[in-house]
Amino acid sequence: MDYDIIVIGSGTAGALAAINAAKTRKVAVVRKGYGATALSSGAFDIASRTGKRGRPFKGFVNLPESIGNVLENEQDHPYSLLSRAFSGDRISEFTSMLKTIGEGFFAELAGAGVPYEGSWENNMIIPNQHGTFKVTSFCQSSMTSGNLAKLMGRSVLFLGFEKTSIHNGTRAQFLDSILSTYGFASFKTINYMNIDLHARGVHCNEHDFISLAALMDDPEQAAKIVSFIAQALETAVYDHAFLPPIMGIRRYREVAKMFRDTFGDRISEFLSPPSSAPGLRLQYALDALLTRHGVTIIDGNASLQDASDVVRTIRITGKDGQSSVLSAHSFVLAPGKFIGGSMIRNTTWREAVLGLPVFIGTHPVTDPFPLKYLTDDPFDEQLLFSMGVRVDSTLRPVDGDNRAVYKNLHAAGSILSGYNYIYDRTGMGTAMVTGAKAGIISAG
Predict the structure, then answer these.
(1) Which of left, alpha, beta for 361 (phi over 0: left; psi -120 to 50: alpha)?
(2) Nearest to 108 by CA among 308, 331, 289, 352
(3) Which letter does DSSP use for residue 230 in this model?
(4) pLDDT tens across 123-181, in order?
């Protein structure tokens, strides 16, 4: 055998599977490129929705209550599947397991230069680029002082940059309006300031602020830009200022410290849309952790080569068209979903790497155009996004008769069916816990 375990996918789920398996096994990660993790906003959603599936959003609850809501109402959710191993207080025991995995993971990320902060008790409310907000459990440390739940009744200031499409005054006012709609107190004042870095000799892409974040990886440029921002804020009246996510990519920890030393907790980044500096920070940190744990990273497109009741070999095809065949005792499938290109449609929908059947709930998706799983109401669940590979309580993919397709295969992350990370707001939590458990289980 070439490896004890091969993991397909290097996002949050795949990296955690590989890291946990590598504690006792020889592991390789195969990936065709970066997926959704590298595009993520900087938030780490574990759970934040109340009520049963299909009911309208009714407000914000604390994290343990949100997790309990998933376990009580979502029987096919990966959280519920993994909680079946517990015989006592299922909610308490699962939450404890999730916290143990999460604390270990966040400690690893901090050691790789990308610290996350948050609470296992209360969710945070963090603004985003669009003038709205996200309720989330953890986020990168440069964002946490901007928790809107603690800024109501205070003066806030949004910063933008000339010739760079980041934020504007209209979106800042919209945020104030939408928060009031959801029952929050208004800000004392909310203002917008545009900073013209181009006029000061700082040039970056005029339409994508990720180039400004990359520019901040240069210590000299970072010091200059922080100085310009400080000068612009000297006469501003504000309790807290929100900055686009520009605090570096590969030197995030150093640049964030520079801002903290200059402004204290009075300035924070808001969440990012794609393309995302926070997402790249996370992905680069995961790559560093894989290397640190001795995991081999192989770039190429994976496809099934030989299998019976077990997967024996997979074929890896590189960008140059050259291919090779790798074998392993066990495999973990964590390639993402739509963004990672891991769902394909011919006459019907299938998972792309191993050809596994896909489901929505317990129903196999046989319609090549499953429009019945979409509605024209933007606030509906949109069941199509819960399509994925169905697994048993040990994360082995199963067929329509609930039988394991391959005995030595486990799956993790957004490829799984039974949950909708957009609607459930459990995306990163599911990636984290299923990835870690798939790695542990596959390692025996």
Answers:
(1) left
(2) 289
(3) H
(4) 998 988 777 888 899 999 999 999 988 888 899 888 887 655 555 566 667 766 776 66
- What does the alpha-carbon distance between residue 245 and residue 265 come to, in Å, rounded to a whole number? 15
Strand 311-317 and strand 323-333: pairing? Answer: antiparallel
Amino acid at 403: R
pLDDT by residue (tens digit) across 12-27?
999 999 999 999 999 9
Q: What is the DSSP string of 135-196?
A: EESEEETTTGGG-GGGTTTSEEEEEEETTB-S--HHHHHHHHHHHHHTTPPPPSEEEEEEE-
Cβ neighbours for 379, distance < 8 A, ≥ 6 positions apart: 56, 57
Q: How far apart are CA 334 and CA 82, in angstroms?
A: 17
Residue showing tokens 């000061």: 200
CB 69 within 8 A of CB 61: yes
In 248-357, DSSP assigns E strands to 267-269, 296-299, 301-307, 311-317, 323-333, 343-345, 349-351
Cα distance between residue 334 and residue 11, in whole Å: 8
- From the list 27, 19, 11, 24, the residue with the least C-alpha distance to 330 is 27
Determine phi and psi for 13, rounding to 5 degrees. Answer: -65, -50
The two tokens of residue 301 are 């497109």
